[in-house]
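Title: Prediction job returns without error message
Component: structure pipeline
Severity: low
Priority: P3
Assignee: unassigned

Description:
Job completed but the reporter wants confirmation the result is attached to the right record. Sequence as submitted:
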Amino acid sequence: VHGIFGQNPGTNHPRMLGELRAASKRGARIVSFNPLRERGLERFADPQDKLEMATLGSTPISTHYFQLRVGGDFAAVKGMMKHVIEREDAAVARGEPSVLDHAFIAEHTLGAMY
């Protein structure tokens, strides 16, 4: 799953659209959080693809698009973190494997360890 927060690749990052298009074609799920309904995050027609241009085709980009209020991305991320921690607590309580990769977290982050 790829998460895109507050990006307008059609306007600000046009090269990013090619990478998102390739990921979409590989079957990646792309979740976009943006207060603006960015056309490039919905569908993308590659100007280098002659067939796509001749047939007016395009590739769907975002599998899910959440149009948040400005600043709402922080609340969305906080909710996702809460959900992951709740799943971790439930897995540990049931004696199941951890949901979190504690070794990765310890090696690549700073601050309080969950």
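Comment from assignee: result matches the submitted record. Helices lie at 14-25, 39-42, 50-54, 72-93, 102-108.
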